[in-house]
Write a structure and sequence with these properties.
heterodimer, A: mainly alpha, Recoverin, domain 1, 2 domains, two-stranded antiparallel ribbon, B: alpha/beta, 6 strands, 13% strand, disordered N terminus, MPAB/Lcp_cat_dom (chain A), EF_Hand_1_Ca_BS (chain A), EF_hand_dom (chain A)
Chain lengths: 487, 267
């Protein structure tokens, strides 16, 4: 056991360095391919918690934008467990601000609050327990000392989140009864749980790199989706499976163990073959970005597309007509609503949708206070403007039909304000123009060639114009589409 | 090759104003960069033979392939063919249906060949919902297949109207919020469909008809026009070579003013 005393959260800031960093147990597991399965399992356990489940349903974009969400989560964990104390404290503050904005009431009027200490403790508990289970299932159970170090790291992680961070039991011995009690008494068959298990894997949208190959993706998903689902279900604690009415698929247990074992063996591949961060980066890569890997991928993808086109062209004519392809620079109101505005994918435009945009933007720009609050406030004003002008039936949210009927009135002063605040936020050096580096922070890609021609900066008026025309004119945009529309 | 006979009255005097091309490339031997063909006369060709109009369209296929080869051989970089105008929808529905099937068959038949020849194919227009979905899919596939080719660019104007292209560009400009003062010809051209297409140098309209018929209105501003009397199904590589030769005799002046080069990418 380390000298770190998890009972006193204040100490974490000073003792953090001894717990985190590249030497930590966490780092060992984060580069383990099995960790992906463990992370899915942890998410399912989180979602089964009524409060977390309600918060996910209302606010999270994990169904519509799972890859973006995955990257953000991974990046955040890396910062929290990284070597740099300053980065860690900033990230903790950012997480706190982000979670402070997530609260409300679920469908049964039960309140939820992402700052609730019990809830936060449970989230960290699932992360820890899933790593332990991951090792157990793959036939390499952790030694007691390793497990205790790992537990201490997770306690320190929670403690870093501050005063209201919640409490895990002080020792590992007390953790297991706590975990069992939570599973037996608190967890439920929540809607979020059902969505993750039954909907997410069947309808997982293709990551942007494979976005143009829907057939290929669908074929792979048909096979992999149910397998991942079965593996995850079989690895859940028995009481939860009983309560949630999850099936006991014959052989699933063996399948689970084999899967964990097989993925565990990947650790013996040469170093550099398995790099979780590389993989996560790749999955959230946009094919059009100027990343060198994107170029290779784009070349491969184009080759496949050309081969597919040739195949279709030389196939003898089928008698029945195929589906009509839809292409063009502008999209219909319905498409825009679905692709961009409805971030949570519930079919309505509501505050959490705009909050998700603000969250993604401030995450990308790595904003601190008070810029982050300004951005959120601008989005909130825009939401009020939208609500006032579009919510025809007065139910507090905007349906697709209401949006489509009133599209022209979308570019109000509040939207322009959002654009201006976003410009201020993106213009980190405050010189009233966005240079190459600032542009890259926001869009993860360099200037387009056309922009470099006109001088290597992006002026306030041009930025505001582009943003407003994307948000109201429904114009496709090579910059904003990867940011807000893709998975 | 030296100019033997002057064609028209204007070519005997030396070029007084700056032409578009560098001074080194004089009139002689200059191959038109962008040639466009209005494929006219299929119906009359069939009528002369007491055949149904549709057989005239079928006979046009051979000419299309011939002309593509001739253009490639002559060193033309851009070839545009006017296959079907937005006004052609008003033809009898039987003929329209037949044309759609014919085009689909031709596209599929020649796709591998076009690709093997390194020709980049594009379809200008193709926005009407009346175009059958499988045909639109074939167009998209052919564009995907040949999109990276670096040989000649073949633009097939299908369901095309020059005015509607200009209207489309105006729409795009308004959507992009370009201020009135910032708009000039170059900016406007960048919003046309396929903005990298250069100005047309030579238009060949077969069958002796002398009309523009709403064809690539913006791009033909300074084009030389030829109206060979031969009907399109009878038009052959030799006719094409003749037209190019005649073009090389002509003295292009661009109204004495070098126009903005079309085909710059959208800003």
């Amino acid at each position: 056991m380390t000298s770190f005393n998890p009972g006193a959260p204040g100490d974490a800031h000073h003792d953090g360095a001894s717990v985190f960093g590249p030497e930590s147990e966490f780092h060992r597991f984060a580069n383990d391919p099995r960790w992906a399965l463990a992370l899915i399992r942890a998410t399912v356990l989180e979602a089964a918690h009524p409060q977390v489940g309600a918060a996910l349903i209302d606010n999270s974009t994990f169904v519509t934008h799972p890859w973006r969400r995955l990257r953000n989560t991974f990046l955040s964990l890396q910062r929290m467990f990284g070597a740099d104390d300053q980065v860690r404290e900033r990230e903790a503050a950012r997480l706190n601000r982000l979670h402070a904005r997530i609260n409300g009431a679920d469908a049964h009027e039960q309140p939820y609050d992402a700052m609730d200490p019990g809830v936060r403790a449970w989230v960290v508990a699932t992360l820890f327990e899933s790593v332990v289970t991951m090792c157990r299932l793959s036939g390499q159970p952790l030694e007691q000392a390793t497990m205790e170090r790992l537990y201490a790291e997770h306690q320190a992680f929670l403690a870093l989140l501050g005063d209201r961070s919640g409490h895990l039991p002080p020792t590992l011995r007390e953790f297991w009864p706590y975990f069992d009690r939570m599973v037996a008494e608190e967890l439920e068959n929540t809607e979020a749980l059902r969505i993750i298990l039954y909907k997410l894997f069947d309808h997982l949208p293709a990551p942007a790199v494979l976005g143009d190959l829907p057939t290929l993706w669908a074929a792979g998903r048909t096979l992999a989706g149910p397998v991942i689902g079965a593996i995850t279900v079989a690895s859940l604690p028995e009481p939860l499976r009983r309560r949630a009415g999850l099936p006991d698929i014959p052989g699933a247990r063996t399948l689970t163990q084999s899967a964990y074992l097989a993925m565990g063996l990947a650790r013996f591949l040469p170093a550099g073959w398995v790099q979780t961060d590389e993989l996560v980066d790749l999955l959230s890569l946009t094919p059009d970005s100027d990343d060198p890997r994107a170029r290779t991928l784009t070349a491969v993808r184009d080759g496949i597309k050309r081969a597919g086109a040739l195949l279709r062209l030389i196939t003898p004519l089928p008698p029945e007509p195929g589906p009509a392809p839809s292409a063009g620079p502008a999209r219909s109101a319905e498409e825009f609503f679905h692709d961009v505005l409805d971030q949570t994918g519930d079919g309505y435009l509501d505050w959490p949708d705009l909050a998700a945009m603000a969250r993604e933007l401030s995450g990308r720009l790595d904003l601190d206070e008070p810029k982050e609050t300004r951005l959120y406030n601008a989005f909130a004003d825009w939401w009020r403007e939208l609500q006032a002008s579009l919510d025809a039936d007065g139910d507090g949210r905007i349906s697709k039909a209401e949006y489509a009927a009133a599209v022209p009135s979308l570019a109000g002063p509040a939207l322009i304000k959002v654009a201006e605040v976003l410009f201020d936020a993106a213009d980190s050096d405050g010189n009233q123009s966005i240079d190459e580096q600032e542009y890259r922070a926001l869009f993860r890609t360099g200037f387009r060639r056309s922009m470099t021609d006109t001088g290597a900066t992006y002026s306030r008026s041009a930025f505001v114009k582009d943003f407003v025309s994307f948000m109201s004119g429904r114009q496709r945009s090579s910059a904003y589409d990867p940011l807000l529309a893709e998975a | 090759m030296k100019v033997e006979q002057a064609h028209g009255g204007s070519s005997s005097s030396p070029v007084p104003f700056g032409p578009r091309r560098p001074a080194g490339e004089g009139r002689d031997g200059r191959v038109p960069r962008h040639v466009a063909c209005v494929m006219d006369g299929n119906g009359r060709w069939a009528a002369q033979r007491s055949l149904p109009r549709t057989s005239g369209h079928t006979a046009a296929e051979a000419t299309v392939i011939d002309v593509i080869e001739a253009a490639r051989a002559a060193g033309v970089e851009w070839l545009s063919l006017y296959a079907f105008s937005t006004e052609n929808w008003s033809r009898p529905s039987g003929e329209v249906d037949f044309l759609m099937h014919l085009v689909r068959r031709v596209v599929r038949k020649h796709a591998p060949l076009l690709h093997a020849r390194g020709i980049r194919c594009r379809f200008l227009g193709v926005s009407d919902a009346r175009i059958p979905a499988p045909l639109a899919q074939d167009f998209a596939d052919l564009m995907t297949l040949t999109g990276a080719n670096r040989g000649m660019t073949l633009t097939v104007a299908f369901d095309h109207g020059g005015r509607s292209d200009i209207v489309e560009a105006a729409r795009s400009l308004i959507r992009a919020g370009v201020p009135a003062e910032a708009l000039d010809e170059q900016v406007f051209a960048a919003h046309l469909p396929f903005p990298d297409t250069p100005d047309v140098d030579l238009v060949i309209r077969t069958s002796g008809e002398q009309r523009i018929s709403n064809f690539m209105l913006w791009q033909v501003a300074y084009a030389e026009w030829m109206f060979p009397p031969v009907l399109w199904p009878d038009f052959r590589a030799t006719h094409f070579a003749e037209c190019v030769h005649t073009y090389q005799q002509r003295d292009r002046r661009f109204g004495g003013v070098a126009p903005h080069a079309n085909g710059d990418l959208r800003p």
